[in-house]
Design a protein that fits this description.
This protein has helices at 5-21, 26-36, 48-66, 73-83, 90-108, 114-133. The protein is mainly alpha-helical and 136 residues long. The mean pLDDT is 91.
């Protein structure tokens, strides 16, 4: 399934508005993740802020490709889902995308639109399908 151009634009807009309002989303994303799943915090033992920032940056890069040309992201998300299975299940891997969307929504507040909500929900469902199917 491909994200509609309208919803792809809304996803990118959410990322842009959040970037304008917050210099570093990483602490907010991981605070929200650890509130929902505190046991995940122990997975970030060495240089947690650096690792978390890198993971979020790579994920956002993947999201931008996923709603755009899909040159690598669908394979990358599927492979990362498999690679993370040693530490987390696939549902938890997909939860990270939900937490990103929730953090963006909270960060941009009233600027969050129905199209953003729909776009993120559709994209996450599509990513979940790739993750569930595994190495593609």
């Amino acid at each position: 399934m491909t994200i509609s151009p309208r919803h792809a634009s809304a996803i990118m807009q959410a990322l842009e508005v959040a970037a304008e309002r917050c210099n570093d989303l990483s602490p907010l994303v991981y605070e929200n993740l650890f509130q929902r799943r505190p046991e995940l915090q122990k997975l970030f033992r060495e240089n947690p802020r650096i690792v978390q920032g890198e993971m979020l940056a790579l994920t956002i890069e993947g999201i931008l490709d996923f709603v755009g040309p899909r040159q690598f992201s669908h394979f990358w998300f599927a492979n990362e889902g498999v690679r993370h299975e040693a530490n987390i299940d696939k549902a938890t891997f997909v939860l990270f995308f939900e937490v990103i969307a929730e953090t963006l929504r909270d960060t941009i507040g009233a600027a969050w639109t129905t199209d953003m909500s729909t776009g993120w929900r559709e994209m996450i469902a599509d990513i979940a399908r790739y993750v569930e199917e595994g190495n593609m």
